């Protein structure tokens, strides 16, 4: 007997899913083939409008919450029950690719379309969500929409965050919401029966193991910090080195010492200084100010505490007479996904004859936060050479469709529970 889950999986249309990616990648397209569609930008607004247009054409209801999380709903036969959610994010890194985030939203939407094509009812409603600002590249931190949804971040406290041009998040959010004035509004947060997010792996393991599906078991922890170093501007030609307060040299010394702190022969620690700004950035003025960010990750909470808690002290020890402020901007402990969902993903992959393996995520995802309120899991598909956060990010249409088939099976199953 062909189950309705198997029918849902068979309804996935690889060509349509690929075309949706091609269309979405035009919004914020970069000349190098990548995507720059940062959170709450005009490009993000265009992506939201496009998704809403596709949803309305299929008769799916759309709604938005106060932080801009966008929900596309295919109603179940018992619409009062908490829905099953799927999705990811439409915002990208400044030098992002076509798949990070967009895939999870489009795969979720493809499942809704497949179910609709088949006129296959589900008991619970299924909703495909585009969470706001997962990347955290324009406004820090990341995963804001999902974190606010579960109450882990408070919306009022986020509104005054500014981007590098000084634009307030509150203003960019208002402009985004105003761009779709007819959209139904929802409150922040509601009961969720389960959440399953599809994503490209963003690492090299599936490709190396020749697997098409990763059943994601959990996500490592992340701690972010913003470091401000204040020295004193001075004339480069006249000021003796001994009396300088050179913010750049202090920052370099801090980063060197942090590199030593984070030294790890097992190559498990992830330590990144991704933003570094020097002021006044003039060849003949001693730098008076530096701002840099730290992204530190590890799967083990004890290591996250031991090394993360040393960061501020190490910066102070290497301040070279400058003032230094270290501000934590994100603290997301490691999590394990619900065993049932990990097994459902592996089981669906097996039934579909897809080579699969369990995998742990080095990247964070919206699923990390939704896992706090509902049974949650993720499905990874390979991306070329594991490259991501890079315009060259690439994935095969057949792998994207395979992930969507697994998603369809799992969502159809969860929606009957
Ligand atoms: C998400 O983009 C991450 O940085 O892990
Ligand atoms: Mn992502
Ligand atoms: Mn990303």
What percent strand?
A: 15-25%
User: What share of the residues lie within helices?
Assistant: 25-40%
Number of helices: 14
First CA to last CA: what distance? Answer: 20 Å
Report the C-alpha radius of gyration, rounded.
Answer: 23 Å
How confident is the prediction overall: mean pLDDT? 98
Bound molecules: glyoxylic acid, manganese (II) ion
- The general outline is globular
Largest sheet: 10 strands, mixed
Q: How many strand segments?
A: 17
Low-confidence segments, given as residue ranges, are: none
Explained architecture:
The protein is 34% helix and 22% strand. By secondary structure, the chain is α/β, with parallel strands linked by helices. One manganese (II) ion binds at residues 89, 100-101, 134, 199, 365.
């Amino acid at each position: 007997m062909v189950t309705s889950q198997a029918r849902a999986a068979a309804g996935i249309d690889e060509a349509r899913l690929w075309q949706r990616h091609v269309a979405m990648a035009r919004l914020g397209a970069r000349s190098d083939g990548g995507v720059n569609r940062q959170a709450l930008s005009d490009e993000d607004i265009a992506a939201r409008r496009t998704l809403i247009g596709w949803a309305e054409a299929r008769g799916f209801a759309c709604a938005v919450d106060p932080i801009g999380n966008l929900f596309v709903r295919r109603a179940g036969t018992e619409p009062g029950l908490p829905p099953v959610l799927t999705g990811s994010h439409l915002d990208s890194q400044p030098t992002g690719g076509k798949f990070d985030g967009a895939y999870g939203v489009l795969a979720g939407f493809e499942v809704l379309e497949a179910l609709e094509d088949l006129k296959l009812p589900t008991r619970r409603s299924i909703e495909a969500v585009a969470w706001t600002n997962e990347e955290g590249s324009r406004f820090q931190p990341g995963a804001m929409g999902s974190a606010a949804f579960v109450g882990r971040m408070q919306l009022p406290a986020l509104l005054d965050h500014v981007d590098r041009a000084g634009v307030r998040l509150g203003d960019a959010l208002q402009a985004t919401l105003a761009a779709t004035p007819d959209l139904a509004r929802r409150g922040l947060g509601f009961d969720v029966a389960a959440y399953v997010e599809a994503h490209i792996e963003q690492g090299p393991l599936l490709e190396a193991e020749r697997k098409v599906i990763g059943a994601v078991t959990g996500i490592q922890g992340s701690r972010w910090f913003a470091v401000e170093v204040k020295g004193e501007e001075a004339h480069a030609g006249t000021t003796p080195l001994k009396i300088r307060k050179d913010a750049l040299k202090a920052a370099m010394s801090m980063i060197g010492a942090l590199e030593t702190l984070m030294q790890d022969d097992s190559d498990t620690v992830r330590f990144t200084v991704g933003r570094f700004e020097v002021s006044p950035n003039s060849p003949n003025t001693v730098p008076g100010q530096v701002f840099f960010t730290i992204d530190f990750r590890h799967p083990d909470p004890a290591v996250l505490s031991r090394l993360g808690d040393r960061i501020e002290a190490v910066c102070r020890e290497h301040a070279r007479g400058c003032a230094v402020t270290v501000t934590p901007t994100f603290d997301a402990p490691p999590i394990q996904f619900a065993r049932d969902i990990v097994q459902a993903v592996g089981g669906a992959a097996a039934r579909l004859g897809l080579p699969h393996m369990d995998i742990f995520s080095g990247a964070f995802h919206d699923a990390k936060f939704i896992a706090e309120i509902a049974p949650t899991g993720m499905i990874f598909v390979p991306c070329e050479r594991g490259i991501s956060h890079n315009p060259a990010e690439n994935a095969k249409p057949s792998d994207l469709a395979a992930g969507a088939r697994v998603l369809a099976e799992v969502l159809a199953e969860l929606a009957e529970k």
